[in-house]
Amino acid sequence: MRKFIIFPFCFVFLAFNSFAQPNHSDTLDVLHYDINLDITNISGQTISGNTVLSATPKIDNLAYFPLDLQALTVDSVFVNDTLCSFSYNDTLIHILPAHAYNSQDTVWLNVFYHGHPITDPSGWGGFYFSGSSTAYNLGVGFQDIPHNYGRVWFPCLDDFNDRATYDFIITTADNLTAVCNGTMEQVTDNGDGTKTWHWILHQSIPTYLASVAVSNYVAVTDTFNSMTGPIPIGIYVLPGDSTDAIGSFSHLKQILAGFEQYFGPYRWERVGYVGVPFNSGAMEHATSIAYPSAVIDGGSSYEYLYAHELSHHWFGDYLTCASAEDMWINEGWAVFAESFYHEFLYDKPTYVSYLMSTHANAIRVAEYDDGGIYPLYPMPQNTTYGTTTYDKGASVVHTLRNYFGDTLFFNAVRAYVTAFGLKDVSSYDLQDFLTTYTGIDMTDFFDGWVFSPGYPHFSVDSFSVVPNGGNYDVTVYVRQRLRERTNFTNSNRVEVSFSDDLWHFQAEEVNFSGEFGQASFSLPFEPTHAYMDLNQKMCDARTTGSKVISSVAVIPFSNTYLTLYVNQISDSAFIQVEHNWVAPDPFEIGIPGLYLTDKRYWKVEGILPDTFNITARFLYSVATTGSYAHLDYGFLIDSPIH
């Protein structure tokens, strides 16, 4: 899912409720759900019906069946058509069959229930009603723990691990349409002012990806010719949005084709979106993405949003994080995909710019958004859906891409998606898979980028040049520093680019571990400058930008908080700006009245013409909100200069 705010309101998170839940999937495997619901009382905001679960015990002599169901009324329970006793505490149904069952048995659990389904205390997730004609679910709750929210509308094993197929049999008023996962098999006019809609999902999913949406929908249909054959597209929207849907989703098939090329085949029976009156994000229900009607406006401003949700059909839906603590496997990879589609649909600089803005946001505000500095794994459950998971997760995938190089990376990604398709995957599973597939031990990379908080920071300390015939032997010395962490990252692969004043450039890779490293190269020119990661291949504790300048202008460098004012220039200049999110080296001799921040510093260098007059504006800010929040509040407020 992707969270955002369209209108000027916000949610304030004051407390996180804990919901104790044993891992029921250790004892029971649900194979299939038949969800039969009457959703005709939308104005009364109630649902009623029954769900039949086909399941097999995972252990012998299982004498009870636990099912999750939250804040609904249970009317009766049957096991294999036999009425059974049960207890229910508003969160867990404890079913007592007439006898115990063994691992070779198949049981059918049939639960009849009704009531008013809840929404998450945060406002994000649960079951919603709007007016007298719209009802829909969002399958996770941001605040409730566990976050899985299948249990708010059907009895289930509500975790990320248990996967099942589904039949949805939904009765609505006859002027409304029910949209669920999978393929619509049948519509029955009941002759009493209602219709019953039968949808079947043939691929298995965890419960949080199951969905229903009811409104006066019309379908905007098309076909995607995938690498495995034609796949129907169904975008269900309100009648007034049908024309706008065509415009808003105009690049959908191109994005699908690009994702298939780089991530592997689209393995689902339908490509689907359904418009809902929810203005704080979207939800990746498999084949039936809940998508804000407000952004179906005929334009492409929210193209990134439907690309993000679509990418979950590789990362999140097809393979699923093993736990909430592993959520970056779903959301970090989806934000990477949300960034990456810009490359194949537009161009690579657009991708890099988008990804680097994501990285800049993570490094600046994640600590404050999330209430702490955390590794990608294990992520505390009270910040599962935070900035670290989404934005730092994407930046680490970008770094991983360039650690391998494109050919090996995308081959590994396609193999990874295939290997863990319709399964759950942990961060350690991913580490081990990449190690085996690539032949590169990924322990150090994951220790440094996934399992540790904060960031490494890489810089060029110095370099030396010795002429050697027509070439030049160059030795470069690099350094690693630490931002909000205590251990150095090992097995680093960093790119250093060299240039001379005649605009010759050459990039070389430096491999090292620990705090310091060095490497030697032979260059065909005598370098005068050495730049760390000029091509922005990694997301360490730096945000950078480079530009060729050829005229008098005002030139902002994105994500660096620096603007150049070019007053005079005789020829082209090349400027590289580094905004370093670590403390600068201290003065060897202190200067009275001059204070250094311990959070950040700039480095500006490049190829300059003989006549070049510029003024630079460096931004400092005490703001705690907005685009410049959390840059210098502590330094400027607490230091002696205040």
Summary tags:
Neutral Protease, domain 2; four-stranded antiparallel β-sheet; Immunoglobulin-like; alpha+beta; 642 residues
Description:
- The structure is a single chain.
- The protein has an eight-stranded mixed beta sheet with strand order 6-5-9-3-2-12-15-14, with no helix packed on it. Strands 10-11-16-13 form a four-stranded antiparallel beta sheet, with no helix packed on it. A four-stranded mixed beta sheet has the order 17-18-19-21, with helices on one face.
- α6 (387-404) packs across α7.
- It is an alpha+beta fold and 642 residues long.
- The protein starts with a strand and ends with a helix.
- It is elongated.
- It has four domains: 1-215, Immunoglobulin-like; 320-449, Neutral Protease Domain 2 (Neutral Protease, domain 2, Orthogonal Bundle); 454-540, Immunoglobulin-like (Sandwich), CATH 2.60.40.1840; 542-642, no CATH class.
Q: How would you summarize the topology of this molecule?
A:
Layout: E1 2-3, E2 28-38, E3 47-57, E4 65-68, E5 73-79, E6 82-83, E7 85-88, E8 92-96, E9 107-115, E10 126-130, E11 134-138, E12 164-173, E13 177-180, E14 183-189, E15 194-205, E16 212-215, E17 218-226, E18 229-237, H1 242-248, H2 252-263, E19 271-276, E20 281-282, E21 289-292, H3 303-311, E22 319-321, H4 328-345, H5 348-369, H6 387-404, H7 406-419, E23 423-425, H8 427-438, H9 443-449, E24 455-468, E25 471-483, E26 492-499, E27 505-512, E28 516-523, E29 529-532, E30 542-549, E31 553-557, E32 562-569, E33 573-580, E34 601-607, E35 612-618, H10 633-638
Parallel strand pairs: 2-12, 18-19, 19-21, 22-23
Antiparallel strand pairs: 1-20, 2-3, 3-9, 4-8, 5-6, 5-9, 7-8, 10-11, 11-16, 12-15, 13-16, 14-15, 17-18, 24-25, 25-28, 26-27, 26-29, 30-33, 31-32, 32-35, 33-34
